[in-house]
């Protein structure tokens, strides 16, 4: 399809390609009913009524009714496997009904369903009511589950099921008119990317729960798939799109975080909604049915509207503390208690990746109101050695520290290499002088001063070296800090902070696929000594990526945040997250605080 997102996925910090979009007035999604319900599915009736069903006990198809998607009737059992089942009870293993869906097709209500032992079937209401009674239309397939009906604009009806299988039905709806075929999608293969091979090569929309929807000539095939994001396995909803019902379909992309198996329907005011059951520990409605308004942000690109928060925890509903664009934010404290923030700027061309050679500084007295201090460094005006390496150098990830009665800022260059500048006045705004190059390669440099006064240079994925007293270079050969299982803490953005007597080593890592649908998380490991051994890494701040931890004037632990993946609460704006730190069986456990 001719769609920028599908053909060439942009960097995930691009707002127009995000799966979740930010709204200051967004509200948390809520359960529809207070009853656990797997595979929740809703359809719209002809009188603007809504019918909800899903997997309950495996023996009954229950239906709830609503006129407004808010107030629901008590459930009605419209079909019983025990009382009315015939062929459904055949075969080996325990028989059970799963993933029923009510659809209104060809002027009648139908219930599609799967069997726990495999196979799919169809029921038709013999009245004008979604509450039945229903007659058994027989077995549709001997394989698969998660069946649904799709009626195209030409009146043809299709059987959709399993992991994206499709077949046109015969006219009397008693069976399939053709052999089911699998919908195949394009693999993620984009030059220059380092995506996880297990996701690059997939030719399926997902693993189960296929559902087809059509809008403005675009077919959208949805499927559920298990997907590890934020270090936690959940079931997300993926979609691929096409202009032809049989394809070719686009690359798949994540459409609804924690959505699992979904159904789309037209709701009030012609708004598109997705019905689903929350899947995974980060879902606000885990195990319960919910609906979320969906929107086509561009042709072929569907996502939830900006009005909702889908993810639980302090990060899910996080709001920016300021409205200026920034990446890799870092906060430190000056000698008078003033907080200073710096980070990757998009100046002067409003582009984080093209000649952004300026270093800007902001200050705050309370971590909430931030004021621009100055442009304290500009490679085009102040740079020296940098301009001999790169024709148009980009300045990335600056970090500030107050040492020896003045301010120091270390920074990185796009393409590799790190540098250091020093304030001549002792003031944060400078002027600064160039202290030269710190490393010839790598990026994301940081300073840490230990309680004994020793200063360390930390960079990239956990590399470290103690500094000379005069800050002119390293006093020892660099080494690399690893976790006790031999794994690195993260691949970039390494830093160290000391809290409750423990050394916390942090860094950014992609969980899931890199720069497509994965999450850019802040990982951490803990040690009693600066050189380790460090505990196995854990997720500290979901979506936190290249943030850095700092301690405020009251001794509380925080992390900076800027958003850099498709499901982050916002992107490229400064945020801060208060952290809790408590001992558990694996050491110091750091989590975002809900305070």
Automatic annotation (TrEMBL):
<protein>
    <submittedName>
        <fullName>Family 43 glycosylhydrolase</fullName>
    </submittedName>
</protein>
<dbReference type="InterPro" id="IPR023296">
    <property type="entry name" value="Glyco_hydro_beta-prop_sf"/>
</dbReference>
<keyword id="KW-0378">Hydrolase</keyword>
<dbReference type="InterPro" id="IPR006710">
    <property type="entry name" value="Glyco_hydro_43"/>
</dbReference>
<comment type="similarity">
    <text>Belongs to the glycosyl hydrolase 43 family.</text>
</comment>
<dbReference type="InterPro" id="IPR051795">
    <property type="entry name" value="Glycosyl_Hydrlase_43"/>
</dbReference>
<dbReference type="Pfam" id="PF04616">
    <property type="entry name" value="Glyco_hydro_43"/>
</dbReference>
<keyword id="KW-0326">Glycosidase</keyword>
